[in-house]
């Protein structure tokens, strides 16, 4: 940036003539796009374990899995 008493268009013409960039350079910078909105904080599930039957073997033994009643996630138990 320079302080001068010349009109702006004269200063720009002088700059444009000596500048290697096409058209002199960028006069105005575009505004930046808005920042992305962050996701809300994650609420952890207060797991409520439930036993669910998932299979019956050929010998008749029932197999169960423990999952959360609220979110359905399989729990290691």
Can you put this structure into words, describing what you see?
The structure is a single chain. This protein has 77 residues and is an alpha+beta fold. The chain has a domain of 31 residues. It is 14% helix and 19% strand. It has one helix and two strands; from the N terminus they run H-E-E. A two-stranded antiparallel sheet has the order 1-2. The longest helix is centred in the first third of the chain and has 11 residues. The chain is rod-shaped, with a radius of gyration of 34 Å. The relative contact order is 0.13. The mean pLDDT is 82.
Helix content: 10-25%
Rg over CA atoms: 34 Å
Low-confidence stretches: none
Please report which band the strand proportion falls in: under 5%, 5-15%, 15-25%, 25-35%, 35-45% or over 45%.
15-25%
Q: What class would the helix/strand composition place it in?
A: alpha+beta
List the secondary-structure elements in sequence, H or E.
HEE
Approximate shape: rod-shaped
Alpha carbon gap, first and last residue: 68 Å
Mean pLDDT: 82
Strand segment tally? 2
Biggest sheet details: 2 strands, antiparallel
Q: What's the number of helices? A: 1
Strand order of the largest sheet: 1-2
List keywords for this structure.
77 residues; rod-shaped; alpha+beta; two-stranded antiparallel ribbon
In summary, what is this structure?
Helices cover about 15% and strands about 20% of the residues.
What's the arrangement of secondary structure elements?
Blueprint lengths: L7 H11 L30 E8 L5 E7 L9
Antiparallel strand pairs: 1-2
């Amino acid at each position: 940036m320079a302080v001068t008493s010349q009109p702006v268009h004269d200063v720009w013409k002088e700059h444009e003539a000596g500048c290697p960039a096409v058209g002199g350079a960028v006069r105005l910078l575009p505004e930046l796009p808005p920042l992305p909105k962050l996701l809300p904080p994650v609420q952890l599930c207060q797991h409520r374990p439930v036993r669910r039957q998932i299979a019956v073997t050929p010998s008749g033994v029932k197999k169960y899995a423990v999952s959360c009643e609220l979110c359905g996630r399989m729990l290691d138990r």
